[in-house]
Amino acid sequence: MVRPPTARSAVPGVGRLGLLEPSAADSLRELAWDNVDSVPLLWALSRSPDADLALQTLIRLREQLGNDWAAVDYELRRDTALRGRLFALIGSSSAFADHLVADPAAWQLLKRPKLPAREELLADLLAAVKADPETGPHAGPMLFRAQVAGPEAIALLRKRYRDQLMLLAAIDLAATVENEPVLPYQKVGQHLTDLADAALTAALSVAVARVCPDREVPVRLAVIAMGKCGARELNYVSDVDVIFVAEPADTTATRLAAEMMSVGSAAFFEIDAALRPEGKAGALVRTLDSHLVYYKRWARTWEFQALLKMRPATGDLELGGDYRDALMPMVWAASERPDFVADVQAMRRRVEDLVPADLRERELKLGHGSLRDVEFAVQLLQLVHGKADDSLHVQGTVEALGALADGGYVGRDDAANLTASYEFLRLLEHRLQLQKLKRTHTLPAPDDEEGMRWLARAAHMRPDGRQDAVGVLTSEIKRNAVRVRRLHAKLFYRPLLESVARIDADNLRLSPAAAVRQLAALGYVAPENALGHLKALTKEVGRKGRIQALLLPTLLEWLGETPNPDAGLLAYRRVSEGLDNEIWFLRELRDEGAIAQRLMIVLGSSAYLPDLLINAPETIRMYADGPDGPLLLATQPSDVARGILSGAGRYDDPKRAVMTARSLRRHELARVASADVLGMLDVPQVCEALSSVWIATLEAALQAVIRASEAELGRPAPADFAVIGMGRLGGMELGYGSDADVLFVCDPRPGEDETVAVKWAIGVAEQVQRLLGAPSTDPPLQVDAGLRPEGRNGALVRTLAAYAAYYEQWAQPWEVQALLRAHQVAGDRKLGIRFLRTVDPIRYPEGGMSADGVREIRRIKARVDSERLPRGANPATHTKLGRGGLADIEWTVQLLQLLHAHEVPELHNTSTLKSLDAIERAELIDAEDAALLRDAWLTATKARNALVLVRGKPADQLPGPGTLLSAIARVAGWPTDDGSEFLDHYMRVTRRAKTVVERIFGGE
């Protein structure tokens, strides 16, 4: 600490004293502090967090004290402790500056050499309202009756409370100015809690006098402190959470509790009873038995977590002790509840969501790397291991961290570092609250230089030779936030790794049973299996083993936040073992945080992707961020299609060509599915990419087969050959579980025999189907030609002329409808376009489809609805054939096309969404109806794709409430973990769409 100049030194300039106000020199002269005898005062003033505020407050005090100012001046010159307390206080808190000016004589309180004891605080506040101990059958050490209970009691109590708070703040802040001892954070919290207990007792004494003025108190009333007050780690400005227990819980008890809250909230701080059973909707006061019934039958996990910090604070302490003794066994058994993991994770996410995104880096309490991160982690570990270890039955966060370290549940170094960061963040929180005595947890904005300068000085930050005080503070804030986030993961997972691999001595002693408990509490359904995976992952010696040990704590934390951490951990083990010889894999995970986090989200969310990633590992590199965003989005489907055709074109052997096309398709599926799971692609983008890669693979296989055939024949093929996409392939709307519906068409070349040409074409089509449909670990490539004329009984391939003759003479309404999705996708482009022109008059009939045709379409749809829905399927949640599902929307759009495409050229479109847009623009239906149909189609497609991504196989039926539905909801982009909410939304959207379908398609 810089020593002040001696009395013989020159008087420092105003600027050197940190005084920026133009009137500062005049103010010093007014105080007679502009001489060399005042140099120690001036240097102390310069160390105040806000020297200008301190100087202005001294001027105001001098004006209020008049002739009594001389005594203050004298004491300040001789008593360095008083000087440090006063200058630090009035330079840190405008609220306490105003308090002193309003009652100038209160400066003498700052001369006290030490903080008053708990008993002194209680006596001081009770004396303000002349409270005496209550007599009668319910008398106790914390039950008093105030003699002063009128409106004046509030002002008297507020003044005494504020005086005691001021003394604590002055002693707490003094080290910023003089060489006073720094008050430990825990001592500050404990003293604030003692003061709060005294305040609650004084408020209850006034309530007793008001509710029972002429009689003894007829009830037993216990006040249970919760939250920070219960844990004895209270802030300067904080709500005090309480729960009331009474015997009996009658109107008198309720009036006592309500009156106490009213008095306390007006005089001291907000008293909040919202943590009681049923929250604000529940009874304010309950008996002990009523509390027990509620917690046994109805309480949620978060309520038991809140009870960790309960403590009888005032009132009937014996009844409060009975309450604690009865409920604590339930608290320590909470981790065995079936919904424990889901509840804890959901609560944590809800808390994080309360903070606006733009404030998360400035929020000390709820942001990233914040106080809540520490408190949440510590409480969770207490709940997990507390039933088996009584040493964890402590309430304060710092005490709990120490107990966890002593028990071997966390590393000692980790506990010490986390404690240091927690105390630093609490120090900043206290300083911010002292400034205006307002409840706040938000750091000044980065561009608020004055605010940051004040906070740096108030928090004892000093220049370090490289940075000024603000720079030091900013660095410390970032360092501690990063440390909290890093240790948050290590706190849970490093001991788990220590239990299966001797990573470090560090005094960790987590037993196998404790490791299983901890994994179960972190969301692992089969914790024994998870331990086996951890053992396998860390068994390698050397560099790889060390990197895995370094990575796993953070990877496991990210996995724990996914829908299926068990499957995710197994998948990670499989990927790691599959890439054992790839030296880049672990290095990328270590050096690129985005890759590691995204990989864990994908593996813990999707059964569709692990095999793809094992066989297409380069996709994992694309999880990184590039200069223009995620690399997963840097590839265009058209580029992939060209790559597939180019790669397959290098081989004459159709099998090798198709293997190459499959390999490139595998990479593209992994890319698209990964981006989809990570929420980077919308539904149309997914459908387009999946359709594009399917078409490219089909084209590559067709070209390879034709090349091989021509080589075998020794001449050009006898016919042109084209593949017409139908259904969702023709509409470029494929999903992950979709087959490729196609028609094969050929046209004999001049001079070729038609029979020979058709036979050749059938051979080509069969070989393409066989090559693409060959067994593989990749998602299947089924080419389905079942929509051809006469169905599966008809010829696999027909000539263009044969198609034209059939459709002109025999086409059924359903076949005409199917042709609406016909689109040239592979083979000879000119032949494909000729086919489309041939069928245009069929699918877009002049004058629209006949009334008989419309009736037939409606009849077929009714038959599909009644016969094709699988047995036992729920029609409300079947994404394809259910009410308001994909079939309903698509048949409605296609019926409108059949009726109006001849007069609206824009309806000559195979895409459902684009056709719906055209229908809306042509005003064939209301915009509101179009929006409902569009929303339902997108919702059903997204849900259907999510089903495949989560389950790893094609499916159309959404499951009922449960973990599987919640996983599907997460992958489908639902903003919460509540799968039931997602299901309700799905059914609401499709139900509204079904109303439109019945009105339009049904002709109502």
Describe the structure.
Its cofactor is Mg(2+). GO terms for molecular function: [glutamate-ammonia-ligase] adenylyltransferase activity; [glutamine synthetase]-adenylyl-L-tyrosine phosphorylase activity; ATP binding; magnesium ion binding. Pfam families: GlnD_UR_UTase, GlnE. It catalyses: [glutamine synthetase]-O(4)-(5'-adenylyl)-L-tyrosine + phosphate = [glutamine synthetase]-L-tyrosine + ADP; [glutamine synthetase]-L-tyrosine + ATP = [glutamine synthetase]-O(4)-(5'-adenylyl)-L-tyrosine + diphosphate. The protein has 42 helices and 14 strands. With about 1000 residues, the chain is mainly alpha-helical. Among the domains are: about 1-110, no CATH class; about 525-605, no CATH class; about 630-845, Beta Polymerase, domain 2 (2-Layer Sandwich), CATH 3.30.460.10; about 850-1000, Up-down Bundle (Four Helix Bundle (Hemerythrin (Met), subunit A)). Strands 3, 4, 5, 6 and 7 form a five-stranded mixed β-sheet that branches. Strands 10, 11, 12, 13 and 14 form a five-stranded mixed β-sheet that branches. α11 (about 250-265) links the parallel β4 (about 240-245) and β5 (about 270). The protein is elongated, with a radius of gyration of 38 Å.
